[in-house]
Backbone:
């Protein structure tokens, strides 16, 4: 704590009194967030007893800037970490600090940093606070632009592991060439051409008493992007050498991944098609790690990120050991003044996504596909497996009836393989979800919103119904009440109401929200990465501020 206070004092001193005379171009900025929850034990919904009763997560970022120089810290406090987050986030300390200097076409960063090469399939360090993910690299990063259109990056360091660092060393280089900048004749072309490539490796000492494990594991990727304002095409292929780990059951097969995106957009119409193939691409700086820690790369999910509660009951988690995925999105705006468009027009979005297994053929006639100490299996690059992991067809229609009334209607048909995604033995769930979202603007700054949702499912916990009313006074206040009712649970003792009441207040750059109620057990996902959320009953307070 003394170290933190000293750093804050020094940075504030530099950015105020001292900087006014000697550092006139300096400034200090920051943001603060604290979330804390008071828990009640609730045996009906499975909410556990929390001995501390009150748990909290807190964050403070400070950024000092003077000309081409930046420096920053992030202080984190977990007393103790809230339910649903990894309990190894324990205590407090400065979890992120860096210094950065830019001079013309050269940039150097020392300390912690976030970075991504291409789509991230060989390297992505990032923070996703809602999932408890922070795999920042602590080391040195260099960026250099030697010629117009040529961008180079390189780094070396270790990844964050809660309030420590992981055992492996990660190194990487990336190069990108913008042909329109590099070749003068292409500078006026409607098409934009970009090519790039990456190489990343990790080092971890082999201490395994049985298997001889590779200590240096390299991966590489190549990418291409073509755009012209209407058409967007990008693709990336990644390859990783053999990397036996806990996640892949210590097999020695090489890994590979392919991602392809094709889009076409004009006024009132948009079409996006995506496909991916992932084969044995778990890549971590500690071969024994599991969960959401020490991940070197990022594997996209290619599914629609639902925001409505019941549609988000069954989100998809990317399967790094092997999957084939597709997604298509069609967006169309029906012109205003037509029968279906009405006075303001109607927006329609259709989305379909599917993920399934690879066609894995066991090696040496073994019945265990992931046999330790072997390559495990072979797989035809273009062949689909027989097992469905996830499928989602959904449609969303948005229509404004008048200057005061707006409606959003959605329907989703979801197939969810709980055995694969959650590691359960409950089989496939099939869910139909309907949502109607109505907003009525009472006055220019006052609105009331009604949200009605229903989920039909013969498996899992059966049918659910949800209703919510929200009243907002822009830009400062909102009040909401909702009830999520599991009326179709096959166990009548679990046909329970999950009610919630909340309000929030915003003033300038500060915001506070308070809620009380019950939360169902489940999982939340962002971009195909997920965490388990336990059932809870209690008060939740969130405070944020920027300065």
Residues:
């Amino acid at each position: 704590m003394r170290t933190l206070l000293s750093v804050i004092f020094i940075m504030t001193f530099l950015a105020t009194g001292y900087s006014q005379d000697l550092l006139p171009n300096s400034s200090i900025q920051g943001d603060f967030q604290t979330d804390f929850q008071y828990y009640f034990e609730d045996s009906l919904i499975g909410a556990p007893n929390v001995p501390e009763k009150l748990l909290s997560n807190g964050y403070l970022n400070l950024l000092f800037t003077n000309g081409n120089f930046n420096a920053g810290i992030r202080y984190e406090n977990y007393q103790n970490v809230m339910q649903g987050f990894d309990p190894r986030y324990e205590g407090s300390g400065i979890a992120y600090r860096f210094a950065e200097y830019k001079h013309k076409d050269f940039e150097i960063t020392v300390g912690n940093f976030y970075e991504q090469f291409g789509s991230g399939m060989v390297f992505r360090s990032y923070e996703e606070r809602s999932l408890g993910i922070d795999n920042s690299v602590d080391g040195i990063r260099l960026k250099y632009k030697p010629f117009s259109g040529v961008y180079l990056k390189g780094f070396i360091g270790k990844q964050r592991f809660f309030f420590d660092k992981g055992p492996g060393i990660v190194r990487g280089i990336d190069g990108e060439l913008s042909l329109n900048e590099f070749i003068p004749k292409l500078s006026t072309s409607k098409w934009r051409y970009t090519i790039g490539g990456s190489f990343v490796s990790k080092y971890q000492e082999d201490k395994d008493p049985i298997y001889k494990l590779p200590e240096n594991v390299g991966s590489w990727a190549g990418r291409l992007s073509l755009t012209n304002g209407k058409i967007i095409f990008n693709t990336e292929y990644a390859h990783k050498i053999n990397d036996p780990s806990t996640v892949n059951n210590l097999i020695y097969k090489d890994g590979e991944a392919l991602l392809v995106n094709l889009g076409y957009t004009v006024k009132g119409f948009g079409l996006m098609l995506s496909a991916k193939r992932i084969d044995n691409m778990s890549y971590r700086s500690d071969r024994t790690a599991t969960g959401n820690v020490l991940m070197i790369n990022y594997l996209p999910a290619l599914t629609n990120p639902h925001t409505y509660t019941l549609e988000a009951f069954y989100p998809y988690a990317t399967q790094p050991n092997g999957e084939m995925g597709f997604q298509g999105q069609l967006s169309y705006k029906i012109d205003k003044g037509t029968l279906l468009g009405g006075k303001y027009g109607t927006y329609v979005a259709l989305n379909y996504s599917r993920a399934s297994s690879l066609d894995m053929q066991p090696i040496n006639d073994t019945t265990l596909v992931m046999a330790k100490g072997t390559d495990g299996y072979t797989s035809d690059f273009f062949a689909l497996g027989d097992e469905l992991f996830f499928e989602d067809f959904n449609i969303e229609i948005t229509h404004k009836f008048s200057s005061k009334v707006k409606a959003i209607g959605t329907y989703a048909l979801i197939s969810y393989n709980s055995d694969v995604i959650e590691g359960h033995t409950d089989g496939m769930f099939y869910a139909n979800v309907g949502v109607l979202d109505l907003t009525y603007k009472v006055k220019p700054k006052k609105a009331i919103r009604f949200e009605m949702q229903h989920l039909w499912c013969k498996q899992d916990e059966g049918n659910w119904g949800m209703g919510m009313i929200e009243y907002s006074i822009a830009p400062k206040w909102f009040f909401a009440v909702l009830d999520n009712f599991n009326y179709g649970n096959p166990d009548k003792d679990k046909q329970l109401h999950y009610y919630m009441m909340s309000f929030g207040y915003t003033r300038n750059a500060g915001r506070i929200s308070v809620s009380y109620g019950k939360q169902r057990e489940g999982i939340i996902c962002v971009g195909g990465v997920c965490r388990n959320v336990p059932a809870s009953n209690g008060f939740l307070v969130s405070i944020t501020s920027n300065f």
Observations:
- The chain has three helices and 31 strands.
- Residues 93-546 form one domain.
- Helices lie at 2-22, 179-182, 418-421.
- The chain has a mean pLDDT of 93.
